[in-house]
Description:
Layout: H1 4-11, E1 17-18, H2 21-26, H3 36-42, E2 50-52, H4 57-70, E3 74-77, E4 94-97, E5 104-108, E6 111-115, H5 120-129, E7 132-134, H6 146-152, H7 159-162, E8 172-176, E9 184-188, E10 204-214, E11 218-225, H8 228-240, E12 246-252, E13 272-279, H9 283-292, E14 296-301, H10 318-327, E15 331-333, E16 336-337, H11 343-354, E17 358-359, E18 362-367, E19 370-375, E20 378-380, H12 384-396, E21 400-401, H13 418-427
Parallel strand pairs: 2-4, 3-4
Antiparallel strand pairs: 1-2, 5-6, 6-10, 7-10, 8-9, 8-10, 11-13, 11-14, 12-13, 15-20, 16-19, 16-21, 17-20, 18-19
Helix pairs in contact: 8-9
Amino acid sequence: YTGWEKALKEQFSEEIVHVDDATREKLSKDYYWYSPVLNRQLEHIQAADAVLIPRNADEVARILAFGYQHHIPVTVRGAGTGNYGQAVPLQGGIVMDLSRMDEILEIGPGFARLQCGVRLSIIDKKAREAGQEIRIYPSTYVKATVGGFVSGGSGGIGSITHGNLWDGNVLEAVVYTMEETPQRLVIRGDELVNYIHNYGTTGIMTEVTIPLSPRTDWAQAIAHFDTFENSMLFGEALAREDAIPKRLVAPMEWPIPSYFVPFAKVIKAELAAVMLEFAEDSLPLVEALAARYGGCIGHYMEAKQYRKTIGVSDFTWNHTTLWAMKTDASMTYLQAGFKLDSYIEQIRELKAKFGDEVYLHFEWVRSGGAITPTALPVVRFRSEERLYEIIAFCESIGVKIFDPHTWVLDHGGRGEVGSMERKKRENDPRGLLNPGKIMVET
Ligand code: FAD
């Protein structure tokens, strides 16, 4: 890229361009170290040549035009909490950090229009003040940006009721292309599928509109069960019970709850635990349902404690894996889809084969309208070969694996990316947006 760095400094102010080693190193990494496989592959990757931190959409467009003109790759980042190495600039060039574009543009009835760099926790706080709330968010909501969630995440707290990102949880996006003169596209409806979970490969999102729901007073609780199977059956029954508003149903096999150090006093030893968030006035219904499966509500937090202190959701989704890794650095994880009609048999087969090598953690979600037992099992890492043996076994018993140990979109098990590839060719003809993350055949 000889010569372009000089041009960069001439064309953009000091406030935007950062070339010092510390900034380049820090903003060229995300949470890929979650995966021992990705850690091995990415820890020695060279940092980006420059970090650009634009303040508005015009500057985003100017940076994209600059990159196009000089053939420089541009990898965008929000808060950098993705854990597949999505935000790592594999071929150097420019990292564009969008966290400074953090304005809430409008909160209206049933929607929020946002600059891409707003943190999800801030959006939810403002929405709750206006009697509403965000529908789905990852367990990293305190730091994660809305643009990063839409472009690099999938679902989270709230997905048990509202599904994942693809289930109507993005209403509109403003996207810039990487061409000689970048276009500003306004994307709605079916077209959004080419931009959701795209790792910034098909365009750069500067604004996004998400739906809001009426605010609910959420209670938090931990339900305990003698067996993991009973905790799963309770989870399914609760997932199906439309009379109970809920946003979290997360069964965990023992010893996973023992990793939750801040909750050590309230966790019951040797029992399975289900982490719950439900409408406060549904407590009697939840207690009755738990009793039907031989369980009981242990730790309980009233709605007025919501977000005031560490909460139940801080131990769910991929935070479960984080707590496991803090206790035992040899732990890693998988992402899996079990079958609704045979998950108990699948669980039995998996446990019979791997015992203490795989501990089960599920998140009940509604995906494409259907209740689904998705899982983020915690796996003891022995070797990459062994990890892929476990994956192969899961697939042999009909458990679908969404491999979290790859940065390539096409290999993450998310299904067809053909239309995304075609869109990339249109919007990014020189293939400069986050290269290496989507395999465009030329
Ligand atoms: P980043 O990591 O900065 O970016 C993610 C991807 O999107 C990158 O490829 C980046 O290039 C691209 N990108 C960012 N902004 C834009 C933009 N404006 N336009 C185009 N592309 C863009 N994810 C979930 O879905 N659910 C969870 O529950 C969840 N739990 C997690 C728990 C832990 C402990 C960790 C470490 C991660 C978890 N994640 C989860 C992954 C991640 O935290 C979330 O997806 C988060 O929303 C990403 O937001 P971010 O701002 O950090 O994005």
